[in-house]
Amino acid sequence: MSRENLSKGTKKVSRPLRVGILGAGLVGATAAIALSRLQDVKVTVFERSPGPRIAGAWISLQVSGLIILDKLLELEQIQRILYRGDNNGTYMVRHWRTGEVIAITPSSAHIADKFKQGRTHRVPLLDVLLSNVPRGAIQYSRNAVGHQVTEDGVHLIFDDSSSETFDLLVAADGLYSKIRRTYLPEEVRYRGSVAYRKVFPESQVLHIKGLPNDSSSWRKDGEVMFLSRLGLGQYGMVTIFKETPEFAATLYWAKNTGSEGLSRLRERFASWDPIIGQVLDTMQDVDAYPLDSAPWMKQLVRHDRIAFIGDAAHPTAGAYGAGATMGFGDAWALFRSLQESNTPPSSNPVTSSQTSQSLYDVPRALRLYNETRYHFLGRVEQQMQLDGLDAAYISEAAHDKAEWIRRFQERHKNNTWLMEHDVEAEFVKTLASEPLWAAKG
Ligand SMILES: Cc1cc2nc3c(=O)[nH]c(=O)nc-3n(C[C@H](O)[C@H](O)[C@H](O)COP(=O)(O)OP(=O)(O)OC[C@H]3O[C@@H](n4cnc5c(N)ncnc54)[C@H](O)[C@@H]3O)c2cc1C
């Protein structure tokens, strides 16, 4: 039997907290690991794919994300699939035509080696995360088509007309989140660039003389090529460049563009550092990812019942190689907020005689979660605008190589405040200042 206590506008449940997570991508899976650790919580994850599925190629893991994963699982599982190369994970930023190193982006010196940034690919990363989700928590082939909020909870409605009710719904359903679009119907829009990505065996490129043994990015105005080994014997290529909306409309997410797509890439990079062409020459095909984006949520919670995490809340479209890391931060902040809002039965005189279950103050937890994350995420969004101004300033010198490099170096930022953001410290600060911000409503 379910019982709820209503006191002074806060709702406390005296049975296991019913948590529904929509989406079993990198962020939904991480939230499932974190929230399953809470006492007296029943976590159910719904994923519309028939099984584990992840598209894409490599992924950078940033310091902030690795610190969180270390709290949630044996970090050795991640270290095994992570590649750092010659410069301990530092990206070597190179001039697009000459390949000379014009900037570097190291992790801060004080960061322990095991937390320094690195690269891996998405399939083994998702595998590691899913292997840490409690068995049976994920239900596949469950496509949610809507939701309703009532006194009783959030009712998640599926395409077969079934529904499930939760005290807390965690929307981790990605960029095209149906739940977010109920509240913010702004169009998801093509942002003018396409990412082309591929992972292939590194044996394919071993013969290339002078191929850097690090993670490198070659920069030109508005265009970038990334090359790196990825560990587990794999090599990765990612490039992002502008394509017309008409051309992008012929593509779709993870479309294999075959040899035709590859020829297009070879042509595009013909005047770049020749080492790039040598790598492209070893490939057979390439996958395209037209980059869509949507405005970020300013408030990450709704109705004292719904929390948005990951791309559902802040679709980065690849910016800073930190989208998943930021999603891991959301999952950790939500976990800590719920943990803090839990009153063990023994210390609750009203209920200790009635039930052995814990109590959660979900509205308070969601306020803590929102307050912990939205300042930081707002700052990241601001940074993207600032970067846009810098990019315009740098590209004005496109025809003068020396001046272009000078401007690039002048404006180049390592953004350690973002990559190394300490979510736990932010949560502790939020908690300490609760009387101040909670009073402001
Ligand atoms: C080109 C590119 C490069 C990037 N590089 C990096 C990088 O290097 N480092 C990094 O950290 N991030 C990177 N990112 C960002 C990163 O990929 C995302 O931030 C991250 O994958 C978001 O994970 P998510 O779980 O929030 O969303 P998703 O991965 O989109 O997962 C959402 C899940 O929800 C499911 N779902 C959706 N709707 C429903 C529904 N109605 N019912 C049931 N299930 C549903 C989907 O099937 C999916 O499994 C990059 C992104 C791009 C585009």
TrEMBL record:
Keyword tRNA-binding in record: no
Domain FAD-binding: 18-340
Entries under InterPro entries matching the protein: FAD-bd, FAD-dep_Monooxygenase_BioMet, FAD/NAD-bd_sf
Cofactor: FAD
SUPFAM superfamilies: FAD/NAD(P)-binding domain
Transmembrane parts of this sequence: 16-35
Entry similarity comment: Belongs to the paxM FAD-dependent monooxygenase family.
Protein's recorded name: FAD-binding domain-containing protein
Lineage: Eukaryota, Fungi, Dikarya, Ascomycota, Pezizomycotina
